[in-house]
TrEMBL record:
Lineage, top ranks: Bacteria, Pseudomonadati, Bacteroidota, Flavobacteriia, Flavobacteriales
Positions of the ABC transporter domain: 1-234
Protein name: ATP-binding cassette domain-containing protein
GO molecular function: ATP binding
Domain of life: Bacteria
SUPFAM superfamilies per record: P-loop containing nucleoside triphosphate hydrolases (SSF52540)
Cited PANTHER family: SPERMIDINE/PUTRESCINE IMPORT ATP-BINDING PROTEIN POTA, SPERMIDINE_PUTRESCINE IMPORT ATP-BINDING PROTEIN POTA
Keywords: ATP-binding, Nucleotide-binding, Transport
Record's keyword annotation contains Transport: yes
Keyword Transcription found: no
Amino acid sequence: MIAFQVRKSLEGPNGLLNLDLNIQIEAGDLVTLYGASGAGKTSALRILAGLMKANSGRIVVDGSIWLDTSNKIDMKPQERQVGFVFQDYALFPHLTALQNLEFASTDSTNKSQIAELVEIMELEKIQNRKPATLSGGQRQRLALARSIVQRPKILLLDEPLAALDITMRLKIQTYLKKVHERYNLTTILVSHDIGEIHKLSNRVYVLEEGKVVKQGTPTEVFFNQKLSGKFKFKGNVLKIEKEDVVYVVTVLIHNEMVKVIAQESEIKNLNVGDVVLVASKAFNPIIQKIK
Ligand SMILES: Nc1ncnc2c1ncn2[C@@H]1O[C@H](COP(=O)(O)OP(=O)(O)OP(=O)(O)O)[C@@H](O)[C@H]1O
């Protein structure tokens, strides 16, 4: 179990931002931090990994104290068993993709796991290349593979799949879920993708201005949300396709085709030809039938 109670003053988008979190995460959970840009999600992960100092707080992981500011305990980042994938990947530039994985692996028995990850993340063709020569998506997949090879206690994923196309994203989500279960990881994901959150996580914390304003299962948090947002367009449904556990609805808005990820509950009464409202909720387009 992770007991995470921290305070940190940050420079928020609108002045001082007081990050103030008190979260308990059960071992084996896969939880998501969700919220607008600048809400403090990345900072929370960085404090947990020991890469950012909290002003005050206490972090206890499986009974071991990682941080206790009142007793001046602050475990070094390298001693915290954390695997992380941040937006900047942090790969070793002088090592090839394969060497990056080998370097991160904890023991020699990991050879078959490396081979498995290379195959699943589709890194075969680029395994002998260095990070600078890879595309953003390839670097992201490599960074994700590397974090898993480290066999961490806690896996921290800061929008790890954001740069990938939908097919690769769905494939890696499935694999991530499998890896999370197989290695009994506790995973904290930052994601704006509601489909991804539904698929992967069992609990969601919604952050606003550094504080948790809502928490629950993905269904509790995202169901029955009132439509609000920066854009709202009417369109016609052209196609509804099943992609793994979510649906992709193609909507014609004026002369543009827009693809919207939807849950089974959202497409239940939806048919090709229906007029729908496509609106933004946080960063995600969502869809609602009008007639
Ligand atoms: N070391 C720091 N000191 C002070 N303020 C910081 C520091 N690092 C980040 N911030 C600020 O804290 C705020 C929260 O940043 P953070 O990256 O945690 O947000 P986020 O919710 O992850 O956003 P995004 O979704 O855009 O990644 C931002 O306004 C950022 O500029």
